[in-house]
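Z., the sequence and structure:
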Amino acid sequence: GDKSASAKALLAPTTPDWSHGLGGNIRAFMDCLNIPPNWHTPDFITLRDAYMVHYRLKRNPQAMRLPGDAEAMKAVPDALSYMPIYAGK
């Protein structure tokens, strides 16, 4: 019912607005650091999923392939080359 839909909406991933508010501030800060303008792509969830698959298969090339692994690897074929930059309060 309504509670189920509300719960799913709360748990669904969201896309940040990089042009206004805090997202705009972060974008301006990143511009000052001379970080490439596409620093926010792929999104965190896509990169996280791809990184985990690539890392698991690097450690054990014979590891069982799970549903979604092929899509995750295709989405970010070079996931292991990314350098995460974390920010927070």
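DSSP finds four helices and no strands in the chain. The two ends are 36 Å apart (CA to CA).

Let me know what you think.
H.
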